[in-house]
Amino acid sequence: MSSPYPESGPPSGAPGGKTSFMNLDSNVGAMLCYILNFVCCLGLVLSIILLVTEKENRFVKFHAVQSLFLAALQIAVGIVIGILGLILSLALNAFDMSWLAWILILGLRFILLLIFLALWIMGGIKAYGGQWYKLPIIGEFAWKTVNK
Q1: Contact 34, 25 (CB under 8 A)
Q2: What is the rounded distance in angstroms from the CA atom of residue 111 to the CA atom of residue 77?
Q3: What is the pLDDT of residues 29-65, one digit of tens each?
Q4: What is the pTM of this model?
Q5: How many other C-beta atoms lie within 10 A of the C-beta of residue 140?
Q6: Of 14, 24, 18, 3, nearest in space to 59 by CA
Q7: CA separation (Å) from 131 to 14, 79, 119, 123, 126?
Q8: Backbone angles phi, psi at 119, to 5 degrees
Q9: Which of 70, 78, 74, 77 is nearest to 126 (CA)?
Q10: Which residue, 18, 25, 32, 144, has fewest beta-carbon neighbours within 10 Å?
């Protein structure tokens, strides 16, 4: 049976392994780092726990770090959009059009929500499939963090 990993993938992260925490399959633990973020940020908690407890399994550590970076990016983008909305609202308030700022920011937040939902789901699917998938932008940072 052939390995689902590319030739350059480290062998320590094989999905056949188990996590130190809760004795989960590696691919299930990695997937839960992404998917559990839909349940009151449990993915953040699990990612931190797996990052601290996993000593050998770089596959799980990589996906835990990537999930944490994705959550941090989502928070940062949310803050920037909030500040942008406040500035736009104040600027349009002079023309009694602050409602336009509200509609524009709400639309932008909805689009970003869809993008982040797709990234969370795609990360979970790729992790469950045993792939070392690097998400755009943050994947390389996660890879360098795990492979120091």
Answers
A1: no
A2: 12
A3: 999 999 999 988 899 999 999 999 998 889 999 999 9
A4: 0.84
A5: 12
A6: 14
A7: 10, 31, 15, 9, 5
A8: -65, -40
A9: 70
A10: 144
Interatomic CA distance for residues 120 and 123, integer angstroms: 5
Report d(CA 141, CA 15) in Å as an integer. 22
User: What tokens appear for 97 in the block?
Assistant: 């059009």
**Residue 18 DSSP SS3:** strand
Could you give the angle at which helices 98-128 and 26-35 cross, rounded to 10 degrees?
170
The DSSP 8-state label assigned to residue 25 in this structure reads B
What percent of the chain is modeled with pLDDT above 90? 67
In the numeric block, which tokens belong to residue 15? 């999905």
Question: Rounded to the nearest 10 degrees, how much is the dihedral formed by the CA atoms of 119, 124, 127, 131?
Answer: -40
- The CA distance from 27 to 32, in Å, is 9
Q: What CA–CA distance (Å, rounded) separates 64 from 66?
A: 5
Contacts of 4 (CB under 8 A, 6+ apart): 15, 129, 130, 131
Alpha-carbon gap, residue 71 to 48, rounded angstroms: 12
